[in-house]
Amino acid sequence: MKRLDRTEIAFKVISYILLTVFGLMCLYPFIFILMNSISAKQYVDNAQVSVFPMGLQFNVYAEVFTSKQFWLSYCNSFFITIYGTAVSMIVGICGAYALSKKRLMFHRGFNFMLTLTMWFNAGMIPTYQNFIRFGVTNRYMFIIALGFNAFNIILLRNYFSSVPTEIEEAATIDGATEFQILLRVYVPMSKSSIITVAMFYAVSRWNGYIWAQMLLGTNDQPLTCYLNLQMENQIKEIEASGGSNLTYSIYSLRYAFVVCSIIPIIVVYPKLQKYFAAGVNVGGVKE
Fold first, then answer.
1. What are the structural domains, with CATH classification, of the chain?
2. Which one of 84, 91, 105, 119 has the largest count of C-beta atoms within 10 Å of its C-beta?
């Protein structure tokens, strides 16, 4: 085994130090929020909590768990994320497969129109008026209306184009139909890219706020809308009904809502990271 010289050792040491510092900087906001959510009222109000909790209390999470509107919004977020991602992936995979085939009639025109939507759009007000006219005022229509993303379809199209044509020709000789070729050849070979794009869709649905706030009613709004508006109203009601008698800080209550809202992302993302790392260069290499 070749021994490292001094410059290589110094480079590795500096790289590990910088990466460790960067990782801690990224982790600190979450630690700060978590520690403040479980610290005693006087320490949180006086901004004395940073990395370690002071005067442990968990009463604030009892308030979160008993909030019906919070859990309703939570369920709405799961509904929009899961079904919205499924609809978007069905549309995206079928569209990308068709657009990756040069034998498709008007192949260039369809690809140009798809790309054109990334350069120009009608604007927020005309788009909002169109949504209202088509009845996009509930979760089901909301999922369908936002089920199309040109950028993600182009990513899948580029990856499908990199699949060797010889494999498709062999499947065709064996009697496979277009639908069978898509499901049994392209989808298994493109698993990393498909999961990567699905994660893009899922994060977008989970964090979506503007259109959900503008189009959906209170009972259909996801968690992001609750954290931005409804949570503040709930906190004002708690303060008005005797906030000075609380055993926890109002800031701790806000932090507790945020901690509960990001748990699904923390649980799911590490499991999908290996696919994300394999699919970030989707469509970047061709024969």
1. 62-279 (1.10.3720.10)
2. 84
